[in-house]
Amino acid sequence: MKTALINLDMINEICHPKGKLAKYSDRISKSHTLANINDLNSWGRKQGHLIIHVRLGFSSHYLDCSTISPIFSAAETNHAVAIDEWGGQFCEDLDIEPQDIQVTKHRVSAFYGTDLDLILRANQIETLILAGVATNNAVELTAREAHDRDYRVQVMKDATECASDEEQMASLNFLSRIAAIRTTKELIL
């Protein structure tokens, strides 16, 4: 059974304290989300798994950004998540190797409007291990869409994070109906 690790939205704008959307960068730091993702990446490479880094981002003209979405409508005004600027770049400490795949998305789900499904199918991937932020947005929607595309889904509860304990628990509770919820240590030991 072939597996891919998918890291979602580990970008400066969201994860770095100086990011424009860094509402919970302190939670990401305290919960060691990035370190756990890096441990998963290292383990995954040793296992021969496909490593995919997905980031939210918009072109500098923002023509690929929704103007009606409550989540994205202020991106252009605030000049946030531009893929050619610091905020739209992957976190400096994220373990990215040349053989890893990078995907840019313009909406919440990693599947919507991207080549992700094509890449997974071309590599005969059957199982997805999801990590990243936010659990209740990108991780949850990507897990839902993966489930509906007949992938086996695992969500790493200690390699995901969102704005509060309540949101994290609610999202993981829902996800437990469509995915295996595991810790990094349970997976890699």
Please tell me about this protein's structure.
It contains seven helices and six strands; from the N terminus they run E-H-H-H-E-E-H-E-H-E-H-E-H. The chain is of the alpha/beta class. It has a single domain (2-188), classed as 3-Layer(aba) Sandwich (Rossmann fold), CATH 3.40.50.850. A six-stranded parallel sheet has the order 3-2-1-4-5-6, with helices on both faces. Strand 4 (125-133), helix 5 (135-148) and strand 5 (152-161) form a beta-alpha-beta unit. The mean pLDDT is 96.
Could you give a quick summary of the protein structure above?
The protein is of the alpha/beta class and 189 residues long. Helices cover 33% and strands 22% of the residues. The chain has seven helices and six strands.
**What percentage of amino acids are in beta strands?**
15-25%
* CATH structural fold name: Rossmann fold
How many structural domains can be distinguished in the coordinates?
1
Shape: globular
Estimate the helix proportion, in percent: 25-40%
Average pLDDT metric: 96
What is the tally of helical segments? 7
In N-to-C order, the SSE pattern is: EHHHEEHEHEHEH
Strand order, biggest sheet? 3-2-1-4-5-6
